[in-house]
Backbone:
């Protein structure tokens, strides 16, 4: 049985894949869905008590359904961006460790966007220096993450395992998104 | 192929024109009707300026000359001096106006609140005669939610964004049939409320897009609007666009028509036009310092006075545009067979530590709104001092158009319109219940009862227990002296009547 190190060496030596496997795409989709849905659930749950005050059950179901449908859209947009990146960037830089690098990218970006959510004035360039710092630190974090995933096979394997474990949870989210989409269609017929 | 001779063509012409005539006749008939106003079928044009407090209107005794045009219109109008809104913000205030019921009946007392299902068939648009052409427009998305509920009875439902410079909402574009939940969800997902938006990434993209759009528009209009372009949420607009459109519509709508036009100024932000900036600086107006109320937001009096001045300057701009509209309509003869109604959905306050109208209080700056009705051909001014309410407009319009007044309507025909004068001692109510569940008895709310010269305000659901305030609004228009302790008999009578009313309206919601 190969160790993590051996796996890494094999991966390193292997030629860059010309395409991305279906399983890898699925894993990356799951990785995109996770932070988006966690953020959605946290914030929707915080608003639900206020909605319960004013909405009928069917309207509340409607509001949540639209939100889930939007989350599916957001997941798809981010996923499409990552896949596009996968095809634009030469294979030896990105596709060779597509799942781990994509997951790292999604999670680092999520953390930096959470910071942005609580300090949204940053994108208004009211203090360009702060905006610059936010952007630079993000780039540095991505570069560090990239370096670690490339140089630490254990980290890469750990991320791959993590994504596989996320699978069940994320599929529940995606299932709910699809239910939301169906409800939205029914409401608009 | 045989050639068509002139004779054949002439034979064919009458036969061909019959179906054409059949199809086009309704339009021809409508056009003919447009040119022949029928006095028994008057038009009704309701113009609502959002957040227009009568306390800031010079016609009603305000010391600043904020509204010379309203004063000018009043010379030929019926002026209601003690007219009250049904609530202190747009959703319930407008719902009361359009349904002729108080908030405890229509239940649209939350932000973006919707009326109970039955009111989609029980409102001004549905109750006015079928041959009336019904048109509506609003700048305010809270009113847009309500109009969506009534859209089945609207012949012309102009979308908010059509008269805006930029509207970055998409709910009504994609989900018109299910507007309100889609709109709330869009808000929740992209904008957030007390909490951050529920979208982690797209909300920031949207924010960037809105910021860029706002910057572009603001820069383009920086000279004209030094305090920023008029806006609310993600809507940016120029009042003149709406006024021009309105002018065109009132002149050309098929008659008879009922038009409801709800414009945003002087709602905050108070972004007046350049020629009105600082017109009231140093005019010496010193509003009384009423101290802090328990619902105070902690604003100091200097800040409130500055905000009051900016509001007044924005109001002066709205008044100027109103004057242009009214003059143009009058000159064109569009008002010859039209009741022109000017009012507001609620007021605004700059006192007791409170700025704006997002508050639990129901002081008169929030409730006392203008009501002027110019009757067709009216040349002199009439003044009405009886207490009236926005719920009276629906019965009045039904009366004017010869329709029966339904028994569920909570208002009555306005004085000077009814054959019999309404009772002087009638009771007028208003309600604030943003924090109360929609389908539950009113236990966290503020209710007010105005009767004769007195006004009782009742706060319930407060941590410190129930609170009552009693004011003699005829002698103490500023509501400075709380008479609750010193006039116990009057307080007890009003308290009992209000309690009875609340018991009655809560009854269907008791579990």
Residues:
């Amino acid at each position: 049985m190969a160790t993590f190190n051996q796996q890494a060496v094999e991966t390193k030596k292997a030629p860059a894949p010309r395409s991305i496997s279906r399983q890898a795409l699925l894993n990356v989709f799951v990785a995109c869905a996770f932070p988006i849905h966690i953020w959605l659930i946290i914030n929707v749950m915080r608003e639900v008590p206020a909605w319960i005050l004013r909405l009928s059950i069917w309207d509340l179901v409607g509001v949540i359904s639209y939100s889930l449908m939007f989350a599916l859209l957001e997941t798809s947009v981010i996923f499409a961006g990552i896949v596009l990146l996968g095809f634009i960037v030469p294979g030896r830089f990105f596709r060779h460790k597509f799942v781990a690098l994509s997951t790292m990218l999604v999670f680092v970006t999520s953390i930096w966007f959470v910071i942005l959510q609580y300090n949204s004035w940053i994108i208004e360039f009211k203090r360009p220096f702060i905006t610059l710092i936010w952007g630079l630190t993000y780039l540095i974090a991505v570069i560090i993450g990239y370096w670690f995933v490339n140089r630490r096979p254990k980290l890469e394997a750990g991320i791959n395992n993590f994504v596989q474990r996320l699978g069940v949870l994320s599929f529940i989210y995606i299932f709910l998104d699809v239910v939301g989409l169906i409800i939205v269609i029914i409401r608009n017929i | 192929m045989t050639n068509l001779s002139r004779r054949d063509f002439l034979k064919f012409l009458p036969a061909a024109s019959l179906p054409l005539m059949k199809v086009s006749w309704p339009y021809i008939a409508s056009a003919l009707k447009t040119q022949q106003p029928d006095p028994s079928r008057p038009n009704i044009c309701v113009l609502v300026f959002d957040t227009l407090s009568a306390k800031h209107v010079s016609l009603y005794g305000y010391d600043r000359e904020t509204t010379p045009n309203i004063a000018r219109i009043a010379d030929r109008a019926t002026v209601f001096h003690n007219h009250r809104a049904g609530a202190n913000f747009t959703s319930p205030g407008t719902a009361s106006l359009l349904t002729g019921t108080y908030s405890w009946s229509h239940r649209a007392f939350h932000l973006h609140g919707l009326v109970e299902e039955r009111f989609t068939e029980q409102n001004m648009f549905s109750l006015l005669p079928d041959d009336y052409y019904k048109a509506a427009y609003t700048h305010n998305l809270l009113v847009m939610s309500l109009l969506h509920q009534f859209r089945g009875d609207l012949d012309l439902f102009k979308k908010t964004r059509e008269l805006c410079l930029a509207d970055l909402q998409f709910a009504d574009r994609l989900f018109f049939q299910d507007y309100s939940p889609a709109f709330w969800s869009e808000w929740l997902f992209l904008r957030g409320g007390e909490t951050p938006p529920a979208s982690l990434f797209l909300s920031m993209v949207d924010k960037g897009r809105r910021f860029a759009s706002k910057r572009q528009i603001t820069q383009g209009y920086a000279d004209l609007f030094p305090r920023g372009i008029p806006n609310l949420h993600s809507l940016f607009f120029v009042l003149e666009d709406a006024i021009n459109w309105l002018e065109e519509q009132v002149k050309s709508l098929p008659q008879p028509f009922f038009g409801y036009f709800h414009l945003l100024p002087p709602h905050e932000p108070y972004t007046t036009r350049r020629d009105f900036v600082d017109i009231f600086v140093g005019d010496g107006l010193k509003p009384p310092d009423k101290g802090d109320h328990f619902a105070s937001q902690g604003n100091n009096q200097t800040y409130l006075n500055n905000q009051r001045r900016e509001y007044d300057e924005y109001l002066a701009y709205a008044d100027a545009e109103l004057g242009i509209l009214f003059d143009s309509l009058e000159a064109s003869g569009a008002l010859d067979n039209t009741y022109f109604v000017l009012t507001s959905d609620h007021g605004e306050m700059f006192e007791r530590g409170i700025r704006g109208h997002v508050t639990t209080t129901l002081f008169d700056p929030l409730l006392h709104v203008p009501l002027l009705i110019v009757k067709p051909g009216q040349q002199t001014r009439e003044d009405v001092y009886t207490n009236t309410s926005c719920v009276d407009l629906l019965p009045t319009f039904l009366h004017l158009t010869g329709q029966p007044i339904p028994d569920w309507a909570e208002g009555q025909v306005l004085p000077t319109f009814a054959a019999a004068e309404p009772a002087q001692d009638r009771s007028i109510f208003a309600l604030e219940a943003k924090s109360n569940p929609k389908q539950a008895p009113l236990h966290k709310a503020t209710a007010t009862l105005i009767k004769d010269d007195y006004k009782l305000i009742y706060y319930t659901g407060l941590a410190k227990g129930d609170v009552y305030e009693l004011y003699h609004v005829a002698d103490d228009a500023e509501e400075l002296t709380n008479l609750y302790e010193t006039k116990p008999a009057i307080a007890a009578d009003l308290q009992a009547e209000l309690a009875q009313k609340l018991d009655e309206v809560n009854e269907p919601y008791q579990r």
Observations:
- The mean pLDDT of chain B is 91.
- The first strand of chain B starts at residue 43 and ends at 49.
